[in-house]
Prior knowledge:
The complex is a heterodimer. In chain A, a hairpin with a 5-residue loop joins strand 1 and strand 2 (17-26). Chain A has 10 helices and 12 strands. Chain A has a single domain (2-94, 166-250), classed as P-loop containing nucleotide triphosphate hydrolases (Rossmann fold), CATH 3.40.50. By secondary structure, chain A is of the alpha/beta class. In chain A, helix 6 packs parallel to helix 7. In chain B, the strands form 2 sheets. A 10-stranded mixed β-sheet of chain B has the order 2-1-5-7-9-11-13-15-17-19, covered by helices on one side. Helix content of chain B is 22%, strand content 37%. In chain B, helix 7 crosses helix 8. Chain B has one domain (5-372). The radius of gyration of chain B is 21 Å and the shape is globular. Chain B contains 9 helices and 19 strands. Chain B starts with a helix and ends with a helix. Classes of the chains: A alpha/beta, B alpha/beta.
Amino acid sequence: xxxxxxxxxxxxxxxxxxxxxxxxxxxxxxxxxxxxxxxxxxxxxxxxxxxxxxxxxxxxxxxxxxxxxxxxxxxxxxxxxxxxxxxxxxxxxxxxxxxxxxxxxxxxxxxxxxxxxxxxxxxxxxxxxxxxxxxxxxxxxxxxxxxxxxxxxxxxxxxxxxxxxxxxxxxxxxxxxxxxxxxxxxxxxxxxxxxxxxxxxxxxxxxxxxxxxxxxxxxxxxxxxxxxxxxxxxxxxxxxxxxxxxxxxxx
Amino acid sequence: xxxxxxxxxxxxxxxxxxxxxxxxxxxxxxxxxxxxxxxxxxxxxxxxxxxxxxxxxxxxxxxxxxxxxxxxxxxxxxxxxxxxxxxxxxxxxxxxxxxxxxxxxxxxxxxxxxxxxxxxxxxxxxxxxxxxxxxxxxxxxxxxxxxxxxxxxxxxxxxxxxxxxxxxxxxxxxxxxxxxxxxxxxxxxxxxxxxxxxxxxxxxxxxxxxxxxxxxxxxxxxxxxxxxxxxxxxxxxxxxxxxxxxxxxxxxxxxxxxxxxxxxxxxxxxxxxxxxxxxxxxxxxxxxxxxxxxxxxxxxxxxxxxxxxxxxxxxxxxxxxxxxxxxxxxxxxxxxxxxxxxxxxxxxxxxxxxxxxxxxxxxxxxxxxxxxxxxxxxxxxxxxxxxxxxxxxxxxxxxxxxxxxxxxxxxxxxxxxxxxxxxxxxxx
Lengths: 251, 428
């Protein structure tokens, strides 16, 4: 599904190297978690994969089902099935949440050679998905993320994911700023999307999200590289001992 | 003070050959306007009020030719609205192309016809609000309009109008020079909507005087354009009675030069005036909104919402003032002017002003200039929306606060439609 080879990335306008040779293989249906201390390059990886500007790839490759992600515009990556749930979902005053969702869905359908979904079918689809995430009609009417609480913003990300049905989902610190109940709700939303084919890359600081979204593989990232990979136990080890031991080991 | 020689010469050249009407009450009003104009002269670049907009092409003896682009260039507006159409071709009323004016359920007459009737209601309005609007700033082009207007309509609503009145300005001749003067009276408790669209002429000078009596409501929505080379200066002078309402929205897309002046006097307590504008300019485009709102009574509310999207060297100007007179307590005044600059070549010049002589008022103003929000753009793209469409969506979002000032949803939808059409053609 997602295949990253020896990915090196620096900031476009500064001589600051952030990723120094990332290798990662996520197979269909798998859930991978990336953990690591602040500044290790986790969020940068998610931005580079989704095509945000400001970064320069100096070496390496990233492929989604064999397609060269790095050669595509952000919207083409989305149409190819990539989705990034933002750490800080963006507020867009003046654009209604429903308009946003519908524009996005129909743009992706168009890219895939499908007709627009009718207004009725779209409404039905969104209502059904929103209900499961406890998103009320009022929230859907408001401008995108404007006046949403932290939890509402994150649920809105998962709603977009549920409506757009991507095949590769990247969750960038989706647990940050959430209380236990909100985290449970978001995790349930993610788990409901697991179907044996869809893959997930879950970026997090803490092990607690992984209690709810059970990963198949856990990676530890530090200084722009994946320094260790293992099973779910690796996350528990980090939770217990912190990153210091692991970092010392590598040095 | 004697008028400078240059100003006198400009005025003589500009008004040479314009129609002089001397009969009846209209003749009297026009003679008075000519005298006022002779004392003022026409505006020049050195005048403070014209500092950001060069009036030369508006005061020149002859209009610069303007190509007729035709409606097919733009997404049509108001076509699905059940309205009474009054059509002007190059500034001349075309009865054949117009609907029967009686269908609107209000009185409608041509200016020239009313002039012959003594004691006409318009006698107390024609040139009267325009003259009141000359203080504290001269607006000579409006006075010239009162003195020499070639046509126009007088509209009086005594109850809720059955349909909106739609003034359609068709531009046929590349060298047409039109001066139109309309007077509108909304009587106590009446309700009227006036729509305007079309380029009108190569050069267009228009005055609309609007008197809204106690408890009356007036809605005004216009779409200026589409011919790119046209030049226009328009004025709205409004006086509001107690508990009355005035709402005006203008969309401008295209046009080489546009100066829209709006002068409002909130004369009766508890009245409300909202003026809004959405503007999109690409390239050789200069658009000026000059607004003057006077609060002269207690507990009135005013709003000015102006948004401009500019690219490829387009220039936007906003001069907006709120004057709160002594005694106009509990005034609620709001003013916002914002521009979205799509590149580094475009310019927005804003001069927001507040002048307050009452001590218990709430007035706020703000003015900003900014580029498109790259984070929001990426967010939309990351959801699969192509860059062009994402940009168009963000531009519409930016303009939405102004469009929200239109009460009628069907009319607002038309305005959005024209905006979207424009964005599709002008996306980079």
